[in-house]
Design brief:
The protein is mostly helical. About 55% of the residues lie in helices and about 5% in strands. It has a domain of about 100 residues: Arc Repressor Mutant, subunit A (Orthogonal Bundle), CATH 1.10.10.2520. The longest helix has about 55 residues.
Length: about 250
């Protein structure tokens, strides 16, 4: 009986040791695996935190390096100073007038004296170029209607054309007055006849046109709006204003 009891105890003791050993081994393996997972997670967290703290510094160059790069890459452009010493605007590179330019301007647009006789003004203003389309129309009307008339007669014809343009009853421009249908026989269609600008009578007509346009000399026809040649008698019921040269003027 005692021997059997001892055998039982010995068997139980051996089984307990085997069970304890296997249990310890299983716990050790599970614990090691758990610790490995925990260590791996900790390493991943540390790596993520390190990336967050380092990444902004690697996104681009620093402010100092950016400024240096800009200074090195961009050339310096000189900007002209648009203000003078008195803080007033000024233009750079303004053209310098030359004597030739001044002489050319004087020749193209002579300055008329507001006083003096008509002949002196015509002598000062005589030119081959009228200077504008409107003055060319006025000079053309004077030329074809009165080129053989005395200066006073040419001035009167030019004054009538100007009076019409300013009256409100006729077209409001010199060219419009000439091109009005049935008013001037030398106009054909909507074109002015060609005139040689080297012709002295044309140059006189240009001078008269400038005198009329600038109102530099008074004409005895005043506000007259109509005229006809002496050799015709249209029977107009208008007030006769003056008879100058080969024309009679009315208003």
């Amino acid at each position: 009986m005692p021997r059997e009891t001892g055998n039982i105890r010995g068997a139980l003791s051996g089984s307990f040791r085997k069970y304890s050993t296997s249990l310890i081994r299983a716990f050790t393996a599970d614990f090691a695996a758990f610790m490995l997972k925990l260590l791996r997670s900790a390493l991943l967290v540390c790596a993520a935190l390190s990336f967050v703290s380092i990444a902004p510094a690697q996104a681009g160059p620093s402010a100092d390096s950016m400024g240096a790069a800009e200074e090195a890459a961009l050339p310096t452009v000189a900007v002209p100073d648009l203000l003078n010493s008195e803080d007033e605007p000024q233009l750079s590179g303004a053209p310098v007038s030359t004597p030739d330019a001044e002489i050319s301007t004087t020749a193209d647009a002579p300055v008329a004296r507001p006083s003096g006789d008509l002949a002196s003004m015509v002598a000062d203003l005589r030119s081959s170029e009228a200077g504008s389309r409107e003055l060319e129309c006025l000079a053309t009307g004077i030329y074809f209607e009165s080129k053989s008339e005395p200066l006073a007669g040419q001035l009167a014809v030019g004054q009538v054309i100007a009076n019409r343009a300013n009256s409100g009853r006729f077209p409001s421009s010199y060219c419009g007055v000439l091109f009005q249908r049935g008013q001037f026989s030398f106009v054909r269609g909507h074109r002015l006849p060609a005139v040689s600008h080297s012709n002295r009578q044309w140059q006189t007509a240009v001078a008269i046109a400038k005198i009329v346009h600038q109102d530099l000399h008074e004409s005895p026809v005043g506000k007259a709006l109509f005229f006809h040649a002496r050799y015709v008698s249209p029977g107009w019921r208008l007030k006769r204003v003056a008879s100058i040269g080969n024309h009679v003027f009315y208003r």
